[in-house]
Design goal:
Length: 298
């Protein structure tokens, strides 16, 4: 698992806008961006897509389009397209993504990867392609014109941007981010298959935790987050189960994936995806309790 500054094992989801928008409207909020253009740090990513989509639903800013019988199309795409006039959220998977404002006639081809990832979302905002960008915290500080990883396209200083808080209002990016985020996302992890022999797994962990090796994965030149995030300070081992690591992020992902579906079907799908283990644990607990009562009564 990646570890960031001050031993943090998570990062924040933020919305960034141009400072001039905040100057014109001190009470600026997300609802003011209805009908405008959005930039996203990756289609189906937690910070770039899932959290903003779920916020639009939870806040009541955008109604969820209902699914009809035999309808297999995702509803999150339609929801975003209904709120914003156009969006740029490229996907690494061919045939996926929402790229109506990415250029190239709105298609998600490799040309649109100019705006891929969190760096791409910030670039999308900086060059005026979009009016608001959803991405992970720390991106603007690194890639603005006065940032430590400024790029040739970094034409504006950090002071020219502001955080847009979920409850409304803007905040300087240099200020405390508390109460101005859309949620926390668990740090990125490196995973291997569960069937991997324990001896091999230990070797993999040992190599990844080796300082001389891991430094090559997140050295300063890694501004575009190749392999690991460029904000990674260290790699740490975690022994938690996948759902424990993902926490609320997994819940939000599940909700976004099943937007518009019948709740009973969503529950069944969720159980099939692994939550049945919780039921098994409860059954075991009940069995042991009954056994204890039986033995105690003898």
């Amino acid at each position: 698992m990646e570890e960031y500054c001050y031993f943090a094992k998570s990062y924040e989801v933020v919305a960034i806008v141009h400072k001039e928008e905040c100057s014109k409207n001190p009470s600026l909020s997300l609802k003011d961006f209805r009908g405008k253009e959005s930039c996203h740090g990756g289609y189906l990513t937690a910070a770039g897509w899932n959290y903003p989509v779920q916020f639009l639903v939870d806040s009541g800013l955008q109604a969820v389009p209902k699914k009809t019988a035999n309808d297999t199309e995702r509803r999150d795409d339609e929801l975003i397209s209904s709120f914003f006039s156009s969006s740029c959220a490229p996907s690494e998977l061919e045939g996926q993504g929402v790229c109506t404002s990415c250029g190239n006639n709105g298609s998600c081809t490799t040309d649109s990867y100019t705006y891929a990832g969190h760096a791409g979302a910030f670039r999308c905002l900086m060059d005026g392609t979009g009016d608001i960008a959803f991405l992970r915290s720390g991106t603007a500080e690194r890639l603005s014109a006065d940032g430590i990883h400024a790029q040739e396209w970094s034409t504006k200083a950090l002071e020219e941007f502001r955080y847009l808080c979920p409850q409304g209002g803007c905040r300087s990016i240099n200020e405390n981010i508390e109460n101005c985020t859309f949620g926390s996302v668990p740090a990125n992890v490196i995973m291997t298959r569960n069937s991997q022999p324990n001896s091999r797994r230990l070797v993999i962990v040992e190599q990844l935790l080796n300082a001389s090796y891991s430094q090559t994965l997140y050295k300063p030149q890694n501004w575009n987050d190749y392999v690991l995030s460029s904000r990674t300070q260290n790699l740490v081992e975690t022994k938690e189960l996948t759902r424990q690591v993902l926490g609320n992020s997994a819940v939000i992902s599940q909700k976004v994936e099943t937007l518009g579906e019948d709740k009973s079907e969503v529950t069944a799908a969720f159980l099939d995806s692994g939550s049945h283990l919780l039921c098994v644990n409860w059954l075991l607990l009940i069995c042991f309790t009954l056994l204890y009562i039986f033995l105690w009564s003898q």
